[in-house]
Backbone:
């Protein structure tokens, strides 16, 4: 018998905290995610090294991926034109994301198992209910991983600053500089699409560096152009400084959601019974007045939790869930997401 009692409630809700809609959505999400994860696992096992630049390799995304046994379905409105980057031993899925970032494209795994690539405004043509929930799951995971990823990118940026470079370039361009750095230091670079579209990388550039810190030297070249270099998923991105500010805003939004989640988990609730992990998650969400969503890993978990009947902060209930299976909880709107901790 499951009993859920939110603080101040005169009577508990019905024995099950699940609605038919939420139960169906979580099962549908688990099925889709299992299929999509298998697709991306295969992509991640392919390693790609190549140089994209005029006169060296001007092949498009579809043809380039075909050389490595990978396939995408390119939307009719996605123009597969120039792409400038130097790639060394990058997993196939990260290579695709790098390419998408440079062109301002998006992608997803369709319910038929294809990898579709399209302009962002075309996304509704490919979405289903399961894919929308998977997108929200990815955002919840980003919220959980965000702090760690921000720290990792910070360490990578610090490592970039630790590189010492001596380089002389006369009558060259930003393209030439990126190519030389990629070839010399085996670093992964890309120049953002909007920067390339503005023609900035074609402008004449002179570099005279002797035993310079690479991070500071790049800043010296890029700042007058309103550009910046930052590390994103092990790739050095050169883009407009406004985009870097947008990344900072995203980090601030994640921090706000962490505060909102912690505030919610401080609420007192009563919950008792011998519960499966998924039922404990649903009951906790119901007690807090939120809808539950559960990552596929937690959805398939067979462990059970036994809770004594007493009022306590919701964070203590979640701690029991976390001990059963390492987990994190994220509040996004009116949905309380329970995701595995990786």
Residues:
């Amino acid at each position: 018998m499951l009993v859920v009692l939110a603080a101040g409630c005169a009577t508990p809700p019905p024995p099950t905290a699940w609605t038919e809609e939420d139960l169906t959505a979580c099962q549908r999400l688990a099925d889709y995610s299992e299929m999509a994860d298998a697709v991306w696992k295969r992509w991640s096992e392919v390693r790609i090294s190549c140089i994209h630049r005029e006169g060296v390799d001007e092949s498009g995304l579809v043809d380039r991926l075909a050389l490595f046994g990978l396939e995408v379905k390119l939307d009719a409105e996605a123009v597969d034109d120039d792409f400038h980057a130097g790639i060394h031993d990058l997993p196939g899925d990260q290579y695709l994301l790098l390419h998408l970032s440079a062109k301002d494209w998006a992608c997803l795994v369709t319910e038929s198992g294809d990898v579709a690539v399209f302009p962002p405004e075309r996304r509704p043509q490919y979405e289903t209910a399961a894919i929308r929930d998977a997108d929200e799951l990815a955002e919840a995971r980003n919220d959980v991983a965000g702090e760690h990823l921000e720290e990792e990118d910070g360490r990578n940026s610090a490592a970039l600053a630790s590189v010492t470079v001596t380089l002389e370039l006369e009558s060259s361009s930003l393209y030439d500089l990126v190519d030389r750095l990629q070839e010399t230091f085996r670093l992964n670079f890309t120049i953002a699409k909007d920067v390339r579209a503005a023609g900035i990388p074609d402008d004449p550039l002179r570099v005279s560096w002797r035993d310079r810190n690479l991070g500071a030297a790049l800043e010296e070249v890029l700042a007058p152009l309103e550009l910046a270099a930052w590390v994103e998923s092990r790739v050095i991105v050169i883009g407009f400084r406004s985009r870097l500010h947008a990344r900072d805003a995203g980090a601030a939004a994640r921090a706000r959601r962490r505060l909102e989640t912690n505030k919610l988990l401080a609420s007192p609730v009563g919950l008792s019974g011998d519960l499966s992990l998924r039922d404990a998650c649903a009951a906790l969400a119901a007690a807090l007045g939120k809808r539950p969503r559960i990552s596929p890993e937690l959805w398939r978990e067979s462990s059970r939790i036994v809770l004594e009947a007493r009022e306590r902060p919701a964070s203590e209930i979640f701690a029991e869930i976390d001990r059963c299976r390492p987990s994190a909880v994220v509040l996004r709107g009116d949905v309380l997401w329970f995701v595995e901790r990786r």
Observations:
- The radius of gyration is 24 Å.
- Residues 129-161 form the longest helix (33 residues).
- The domain at 163-241 is CATH 3.55.50.30 (Phage tail protein beta-alpha-beta fold).
